[in-house]
């Protein structure tokens, strides 16, 4: 069943985190399954991501990390299992519905966005990720009897604050297509944030990023975590995972092998074995 064939309706009414039951993790995955022509890419994976954490997902090639991300974010419809956001089911919903519900992933800047400036990319970000109707609901000030023009002015202010925060202001008028790999990653993260997510999924946020920008990206992610944002990231750089994550989920053959704090995971024999005896 494709996400568009889903017979349930996404509970897309954004509710503040304060209304969720105390102790409910922002993201809970239970018994997730997805096969491709007999290959069990995800085979019963269950895990939670706790509020305000930077949780890393690691695992050998083919362990099922990307497929898990795609099932969580609605790009694949799982064959079985459930995904809950703040205790509300989002399993099998379309990607834009899941973004509206508060779970957003970073995307590579698409070709058409490369031909727009950095500023335009950010001004359009909420609209692109949430759909035309919903983006007005997240515009700053749009909940009162404010004019759209006033709201758009406030969005522009938010965008400039975001540009400052990410040290991208000097690139505001540059075409996104001219940015370096690291600057693009910063822009991708900034775009995702403008959708005002409860949970952010980052898929290899540091791939192709030079050490200076890697440091800046990690600092921004840590600031955002300190502000209460919740992250789940797939990253192959083990040092980054072990140094910056609060919790680590290790996947192997489509299932969760081990979950815990980095110091526990690093020394776990099953984990070392899964990486063919290499140093984790
Ligand atoms: N669209 C697809 N069609 C067929 N098989 C697929 C598809 N997507 C993933 N697979 C298979 O599912 C398994 C899990 O793949 P997945 O990409 O989720 O793993 P991964 O942990 O993200 O790997 P990597 O770290 O190499 O990106 C692999 O055997 C892969 O070949």
From TrEMBL:
<dbReference type="InterPro" id="IPR017871">
    <property type="entry name" value="ABC_transporter-like_CS"/>
</dbReference>
<keyword id="KW-0813">Transport</keyword>
<dbReference type="InterPro" id="IPR051120">
    <property type="entry name" value="ABC_AA/LPS_Transport"/>
</dbReference>
<dbReference type="InterPro" id="IPR003593">
    <property type="entry name" value="AAA+_ATPase"/>
</dbReference>
<feature type="region of interest" description="Disordered">
    <location>
        <begin position="1"/>
        <end position="30"/>
    </location>
</feature>
<dbReference type="InterPro" id="IPR003439">
    <property type="entry name" value="ABC_transporter-like_ATP-bd"/>
</dbReference>
<comment type="function">
    <text>Probable component of a branched-chain amino-acid transport system.</text>
</comment>
<comment type="similarity">
    <text>Belongs to the ABC transporter superfamily.</text>
</comment>
<keyword id="KW-0547">Nucleotide-binding</keyword>
<dbReference type="InterPro" id="IPR032823">
    <property type="entry name" value="BCA_ABC_TP_C"/>
</dbReference>
<dbReference type="Pfam" id="PF00005">
    <property type="entry name" value="ABC_tran"/>
</dbReference>
<dbReference type="Pfam" id="PF12399">
    <property type="entry name" value="BCA_ABC_TP_C"/>
</dbReference>
<dbReference type="InterPro" id="IPR027417">
    <property type="entry name" value="P-loop_NTPase"/>
</dbReference>
<dbReference type="GO" id="GO:0005524">
    <property type="term" value="F:ATP binding"/>
</dbReference>
<keyword id="KW-0067">ATP-binding</keyword>
<dbReference type="GO" id="GO:0006865">
    <property type="term" value="P:amino acid transport"/>
</dbReference>
<feature type="domain" description="ABC transporter">
    <location>
        <begin position="27"/>
        <end position="278"/>
    </location>
</feature>
<keyword id="KW-0029">Amino-acid transport</keyword>
<protein>
    <recommendedName>
        <fullName>Probable branched-chain amino acid transport ATP-binding protein LivG</fullName>
    </recommendedName>
</protein>
